Amino acid sequence: MKIFLLLGILLIVSFLFKRTQFVVFFSLTIVAGVFFWFFDDQNHSVFQTGEIDGTVILNDGIVIDGDAFRAQVLYQGERFQLSYKLASEQEQKQFMSLNYGDKLSVSGELIAPEKNRNTDQFNYQDFLYRKQVHWLMKASSVQSLPEKNATWLHSLKNFRKSQLKKIDTLMDSQIAPYVASLIYGDRTSVETSVYESYQRLGVVHLLAISGLHVNLIISGFLILFRRLGFQIEKTAIVMICLLPLYCLMTGANAPVVRAAIMTICLMVGRLSPIRVTSLQALCFSFIFVFLFNPYCVLEIGFQLSYAVSFSIILSGRKIMRKVTSNLLSSLYISLISTVSGIAVMSYHFYEFSVVGVFLNVIYVPLFTFILLPLSFVSIFFLNLAPVLLFIPSMVMKVAVNISESLASLLQEIPFTTWVTGRPAPILLGIILLFTLYFFNRWEKTGKIYRYLIPICLCLVIGTINFTGKVSMIDVGQGDSILIQLPWNKGTYLIDVGGQMAFDKEKWAERKAPFSVGKNIVTPVLKAKGISKVDKLIVTHSDADHMEGLIDVGKAIKIKELIYAEGGETKNIMKKALQALPNVPTKVIVAGYSWAKGNATFQVLSPTERGEGGNNDSIVISAVLDQKKWLFTGDIEKEAEQALLENPLIEADILKVGHHGSKTSTIPAFIDKVQPVISLISCGVDNRFGHPRKETLATLETADSTIYRTDQNGEIIYTFSKGFTFGLE
Q1: What is the pTM of this model?
Q2: Which of 581, 570, 532 has its CA nearest to residue 552?
Q3: Does the structure show a pLDDT above 80 at 1?
Q4: Are 454 and 401 in the same domain?
Q5: Domains in the chain: how many in total?
Q6: Which of 273, 363, 481, 553 makes an SS bond possible with 494, Cβ 3.0 to 4.6 Å?
């Protein structure tokens, strides 16, 4: 309503000052907003949480990853996200033969998708909502039925699925992921290490089908058909008919749809008396996609694709008029793409590649003029003459080796990415305004660097924590506490969470298993604009406190790793130290302390060398925002008993030991600490039953207010303001 009110005011002002263009713009924006609201109002479910038993139709997104089966299914006209744990390798093979349109008999439970439990993180509930999926169908039993209900769209998806299977089975394992990505838009088979290398260098977008790829494909087919003697009009008609099918077959991603619709518009313009400009075609594609699915404006691919395309069309031509060198032209296009996408990248990914501007000059030709054509030749031979497949494969393998070796070499360069954090809404708006100002000045003056300075300053401001915060990150059943002193004077991380690793059979292993360090802690830090921590303290060597250390250490610079003496005797700590050989370490016992400004930290325990167990946890007494804090790791009653004589354990805010286990938080300890607020980090419905009733009763008896991550999500204390929560 606030947005509609603002638009209405701007419309009235534009009307009063007789600004016709602004009147039209704000009028169309209000109409689009009303359409979005009406569309969104129809997006609801008739089902409720609970048991479900019935027949579903496989509709989209079939994924078999180790022992996990996932797919979008249709049930009584509504979409559900189905998940099922495969019981055996034989069952996995049976599920691999399933196709879109197949019917399944499913028994299970409908549960609501989770929101993001940490601020500024990926919201799975919203993601599914925009796909008009309101429930997760967690299946306990799945049986394939003989009858099918396949539509023409399902048939198209099945063709794509069969092609991807053929690529995976018959092609060289090194080049198969590239062919699948560049031809069918499937990146699931790309090695995680390779994908992350390209991502850090800012060239990962080349693994997706982009507008440039589509244009090259169309140009190639037009040249081929003309060589074969086809009239250009008939060729254009054929391409207009085939492009929508190609879009659907490649997953209908925003860049592909945009490029396809633009091409169709331009071709129609050539076949008719009406001439269509690139800008008109882009605007028409925007309107068409929005009317088909208004939620598209919230998708990252849509925002990036249109931001870059509008920038290139509106500013690119004026800027390129003065450029005579092909190399400089490529560099300028790369710079335009990077700057126009900075706001989107910062908001969604919290970082962007600094070197990507230069590396795109190398990688774009490599992918679009070598790997893409070779991928098409490989697909041609794969389907019509498999015996000749080795010819393009040999050449492509050389190109892939060069690409991956170069990426591996370049990613060792420091400062390849700029961690920006997620800008606040006002700052994001300012960045967008400065971006428009940058392009305006570049067009008129030809200068670049001086007009980039305001954008860079905004990005720097976005990484400064002005007030100071203490955040108990929701890592599930584990611990991770982030302390940020005001004005970035100090950033300290106590534990990084983690989970126990259980051995699985080879068939059941997942390609990219969930990692607390990689999937939770690292994104939380980057969203807050943190690219390095001054001290990372591992309280003790249990998996739920430090298993994520390696992943965090690879993504975030650790200036000093601190752990208790004896903690290195456990294999999990040995493995982490070996994986992070360049990280400075400090082994401590009670008595170690440090201070920064008004903040002080004093280690109270352990008093002697231990073995990295619960009672060997590092206990820290801190003064933050003129309040006493006590961070206790996983200490149990024996360690608590030993601390009773220490006056420094008195605290306003207590991090409850061992996730609220009944083996910790004895009444005598709480009577001595006298916490006004108690914080408990534990997983939702965890198998240990944490926090235990006995612990909660002890804290309630002491009149201590309890905040829990399983109920509140991330718990954030802002200096001089108090507590807020991730699930608010």
Answers
A1: 0.92
A2: 532
A3: no
A4: no
A5: 5
A6: 481
